[in-house]
TrEMBL record:
GO biological process, one term: protein secretion by the type III secretion system
Pfam families listed in its UniProt record: CesT (PF05932)
Domain of life: Bacteria
Protein name stated in the entry: Molecular chaperone Tir
Native organism: Halodesulfovibrio spirochaetisodalis
Cross-referenced SUPFAM superfamilies: Type III secretory system chaperone-like (SSF69635)
Gene3D superfamilies in the record: 3.30.1460.10
Amino acid sequence: MDNLAIVQNVLKEFGKIIDLDSIALNDTGSCKLVLDDLEIHLEIDDATDSLMLLSPVAEGTEQLMADALELNLFWGHLNGCRFTLLRSINVLALLNRLPTTGLDITVFEKELNTFADTALTWKRAFNEMPVPDEQPTMPDCELQKQNLLNQI
């Protein structure tokens, strides 16, 4: 079975669970879920035989991008996800990939829940970050990282 068919079957089952009949990937192999205050984009990546989960978490600033690169080292706080820049819209997003091999509704639900929780946590943390002018004398980068980690 090809990647598109695998994911379409999983999404069909997921739609039944959440009472949504029309959840499916479009012709380009992508779709968007909106869960409360969180937007999650799903997209097939045939090159890696995976389903990408992508969620915007903050407007991109130079300092935030630099800090996000450092935060990518903290596997535990990111639950296997990574931050990435969506350059065309200047947004920092959280990204995870699920292998399509062995992907079923149980794996999808578990991974989607973990991803959504992680994205929402970081979205809130970034939105609650103090404005740089209000920060004490600690270097901006270090203080922002410390603030983020304290909020998690």
